[in-house]
Amino acid sequence: MSSRAIPEVETVAPRVARTPTDWKGDAMRRRIAGRYGAERRFRLLGLAAVALSGGFLLFLLITMMANGLRGFTQTQIALPIDFPSSPLVIDPASLKTNPEQVLAGANLPQVIDHAAVAAFGKDGGRFMSAGAVTALRQAIIDDPDILTRKATITVPASEGVDLAAKSNGSPADEAAVARLKQAGALSTGANLSFLTLSDGTDPTVVGVWGALKGSLLTMGITLLLSFPIGVFSALYLEEYAPRNRWTDLIEVSINNLAAVPSIIFGLLGLAIFLNVAHLPRSAPLVGGMTLALMTMPVIVIAGRNAIKAVPPSIRDAARGIGASPVQVVFHHVLPLALPGILTGTIIGMARALGETAPLLMIGMRAFVASPPGGITDPATVLPVQIFLWSDEVGKGFIEKTSAAIIVLLIFLLTMNSIAIYLRNKFEKKW
Amino acid sequence: MTGLMIVLIILALGAIGWIVARARATRLQIEVGRLATNSRPTQHGWYVALWTTLPALAFLAVWANVMPGLVHGTVMATPAARSLPADDFSRNAVLAEAQAIASGAQAGAFNPQSLTLVDSFRAATSRYSAIGAILAAILAFAGGAYAFSRVRPAFTARSRVERVVMWTLLGASLIAIITTAGIVASLLLESLRFFSMVNPLDFLFGLKWSPQSAALGYGNENAFGAVPLFWGTVFIGAIIAMIVAIPLGLMSAIYLTQYARPETRKWMKPILEVLAGVPTVVYGYFAALTVAPALRSFASTVGIPGASSESALAAGLVMGVMIIPFVSSMADDSIAAVPQAMRDGSLAMGATTSETIRKVLIPAALPGVVGGVLLAVSRAIGETMIVVMAAGLAANLTLNPFASVTTVTTQMVQLLTGDQEFDSAKTLAAFALGLVLFVVTLLLNIVALRVVKKYREAYE
Amino acid sequence: MAESDTIPKMSARGVNVFYGEKQAIQDVSIDVDLDNVTAFIGPSGCGKSTFLRTLNRMNDTVASARVEGKITLDGEDIYGANMDVVQLRARVGMVFQKPNPFPKTIYENVAYGPRIHGLASGKADLDQIVEKSLRRAGLWDEVKDRLNDSGTALSGGQQQRLCIARAIAVDPEVILMDEPCSALDPIATAKIEELILELRGNYAIVIVTHNMQQAARVSQRTAFFHLGRMVEQGPTTEIFTNPREERTKDYITGRYG
């Protein structure tokens, strides 16, 4: 034991005279109560902040739902047509052999108009949507014998009637709805054609399929380019890159690209892909390439983190049995890092799917009435379609815009859920 | 034969090479014994496959760029081409139309003369495609045969294949540099062209923005003063949005890290993350459809003058909400980086939790929070869709949040959408604005990362 | 030993501590008085630090922790409904294993406690408290010219004395020290030990240490903890020279630990 042995109790230092704090006094009690009050208020403030943020999200979603779900319904009118007395000119014989072509040339709009006027008065034709012709054509194809008798077919109502029936429209349309209701001709049906149609000028017959297909093609290109490039870059930087100025330059570039505003990538696409390389404007090819440059850094950063998380012991073990550097990485490190890389890729792709600004720069705001056939056809994508519809004057486009937003959000939520699922399922603690 | 077909055929040849070489190497291995071979059969397979495909594909890439010139030359040499107009512009128009008809991209001709060239275009195109395909196939076979002849027990196929893999990886990572260089080059070049038409000082310090008047021929002077744009960007992104996002984000982070029970935190955090995952076009639509009209009717009820249906406040508020999760997660990280010992030290003195947070944790985490806010600002000023849809186009220099202002990104979209002639000052101005935006966000990010890094080091 | 002369400042009876399902402390009873420095010794993981933290309810900050039994301060149950944890911690100060000055100036570090508890009537009064506390922690002469420098810029030993000054500044009755020298070099350790000896008599001091020489040097009473139980306690001289329990003897003679 040390020589500075145990001091004796008797050597206690002289007590310093002090007045002990009066913790029980009134003033101190009040003070402490005040401090607890401040504590509660602060805590409530925090809760309020979280509630406000969450509440805003809820408000946004509810607004979109309330507007958008109506976009999936369509007000319909039961239209009685007396075919024998209608002005339809058609050859019943050729109808049997080649109905599509015969009906494409027939004066169906006139038939609709005639029947509507007969049923609902002189402005009856105005109640019918342009989609009524499609409904009529389908009815005739389904049952050609219909032409010999009187029949009632259900056709979509026009934008004005649709709006007036769902919420409130112009006085004229409200009156029309009242009249149609009285005649018992009004009903509401599901409008699944919203998912199969493309852009148009009449909000009752537009759909998201064209934009959705454009999005899918664009995302395909983006994935095809950004995934290999991103994974290869991550592998190189994490596993092989020597510490030198080039490597630093690569790292700085990637970190900066991740922070560059997306619209700048649009400028890059416009200047390089369109004006220098002369690739087709408005095409998914260029859109996909632009978004790939934007997504690549996200994948690289996620990939590097996933690769870093693979413990060095696994590399050592593989090297120890004589695996070459390439074999170590491709046989051992990459498979273990893959779930993390995939999670990052899905998150990056979800971001690209919701991106609008860079695609506006390269002209992917074309009015596309039919879905693009390939990656070089003019196309638009879902977010841009939302933007375009939001600019439309017609009131009927409001619910279509919201409905398209619902479709987009469903895609994004699904992708994010898959990413979270992957992350949780493969989250490994080494 | 289309290009895609040729590529597929070459890839198929590569696959055949892979199989054949692998089979041969396996046989060799059986003959001489496993230990006498340098590389595994699969590696020989890859070696042959690479030699079969890479030279042929590289040739095709070159051919695709050379072929249009050759086709053009051939067509020009035909007798029908002699009657073409002499001036370049109309001659090229006819040629382009003929080519479009020949490739099937266009159905009919506006200029009947182009019809006479269609056949020669078709013939030349198919002839040169066939030549290209045959040459590519020869290259594929030659490469494959050369590599196949080298399949011997002692041949170091593995290290050669691995060298290709390494070069591929290096090449992939160079794309980041190329992209950055591409961004800088395109922004700089186009901006220089812009500044040759407009004085940079007028652009950076001018107070009047009306590119439309320049386009209408009133001259470029006094049309490209970008100060109102800069102000609008700062007003919306750095002031209004941050007034919303900083308190809400910071307090959310504090509540979730310091007060909420783990179970609560578990479902509250993903909700904030969802907020971050909503596309900006949705926020923009929400701002324009719901928030802006509400704010305008509020302003006119209260009697604020100059209220517009597109207001700085609507865009800023919604952008602030969009930034909340970003600020919150940065604050979360910064507070989590403050050592637990600080918190314990303060609590052990008899401080309440809120006193500990306000007087110890936040001051300690401040550099990290500030860095996070700078990153948030850089993101906010680069954000496009919300301001395009909700902020408006009027270049006002105003302090009234209910008035309409415009931003750098809004004007970039405005200048570059629709029909554009690429050389006008109007379209080039978008690149100058892009350059300013790029430089500012880059600086913000560099400063922010420095601050955050320094702060992290302080606690390590 | 004059054990019965002084009224115990704090006393624990039958204390059990649980972390979730796991029991960390089992049936510990001990008194702490004003005139003696009490040392808790024992191998790491024996529960001595855990027990120390129950004395100013720092275990409250761990959600899964649960304390049973009775601990009193001046006869008042510190886990009772009338006891305010803010007050309790002001009266029972704590110094941690690793020096943890706040990232503020030296002055602000010491002034922190008096400020939050409202102990100073004005700027002059606060200056006085800061100076008195720093003097008592033996740090005044070293820092009086740079009170506005950051507390984290001091050396390790100075930081720990700053933390002691910080604890003293709220005028506590008990000071708990959780291995206060384990992160310090020998010279800094000697200074802290001197300081502990000087502070004795003004504050009831409890020190947790795994360094037996230190326990012998600074304490008058020692308690030996092993596997969550208190094996034996008594005057330090007795524990070190003539332990009653075999396990204590094994530990002190270095058989394990």
TrEMBL record, chain B:
Predominant localisation class: membrane
An example Gene Ontology molecular-function term: phosphate transmembrane transporter activity
This protein's record includes keyword Transferase: no
GO cellular component, as recorded: plasma membrane
Location(s), subcellular: Cell inner membrane; Cell membrane
Domain annotation ABC transmembrane type-1: ranges: 231-448
Membrane-spanning ranges: 6-25, 46-66, 128-148, 169-189, 229-250, 271-292, 312-339, 360-381, 428-452
GO biological process terms held by the UniProt record: phosphate ion transport
Entry keywords, A to Z: Cell inner membrane, Cell membrane, Membrane, Phosphate transport, Transmembrane, Transmembrane helix, Transport
Superkingdom of this protein's organism: Bacteria
Statement: the UniProt record of this protein carries the keyword ATP-binding: no
Membrane protein topology class: Multi-pass membrane protein
PANTHER family for the chain: PHOSPHATE TRANSPORT SYSTEM PERMEASE, PHOSPHATE TRANSPORT SYSTEM PERMEASE PROTEIN
Protein family membership: Belongs to the binding-protein-dependent transport system permease family. CysTW subfamily.
Described purpose of this protein according to its UniProt entry: Part of the binding-protein-dependent transport system for phosphate; probably responsible for the translocation of the substrate across the membrane.
Protein's name in the database: Phosphate transport system permease protein
Gene: pstC
UniProtKB/TrEMBL annotation, chain C:
Alphabetized NCBIfam families for the sequence: 3a0107s01c2
PROSITE patterns: ABC_TRANSPORTER_1, ABC_TRANSPORTER_2
Keyword 4Fe-4S included in the entry's annotation: no
Keyword Ribonucleoprotein: no
Native source organism of the sequence: Sphingobium nicotianae
GO MF term list: ATP binding; ATP hydrolysis activity; phosphate transmembrane transporter activity
Domain of life: Bacteria
Ranges of residues in domain ABC transporter: 10-252
Name of the protein in its database record: Phosphate ABC transporter ATP-binding protein
GO biological-process terms attached to the record: phosphate ion transmembrane transport
GO cellular component: membrane
Keywords: ATP-binding, Nucleotide-binding, Phosphate transport, Transport
